[in-house]
Fold this protein.
Amino acid sequence: MADNDERNEEQKGSAEIGSDPAAAEQETERLSGRVDELEKTLADRESEIISLKNGLKESVESYRSLVMESNPDILPEMIGGDSVEALNESVLRAKDLIGRIKAGLESQENSLRIPAGSPQRGMIDTAGLSPGEKIRRGIR
């Protein structure tokens, strides 16, 4: 709203200046001062933005360090991003990957499981064995 008021004043001033050189010079000085003021404000805002970006970067790095400490089973290379949301997303993807790998290893382990202890003894068919073969195998 203040910008609209300023624009209206500038338009009125431009109409009044018309042919008066002194008024034109005064308006030029006023506008030059306004431009300088706006350039200073812009420079201030730009430095604030740079400061905020640096603060955000430091905060994200600190958060990344905390995330890595609290998730030692995730490789640091798997945790990345330039925002908190991106870091959280990368952690979720890494945890999902780790869960799928663990499930695959467990199913593979279960399929290769060897029972503990000696194998169960069963009846040996001695019908086709000769007495010498029975002696070699230690069968009665």
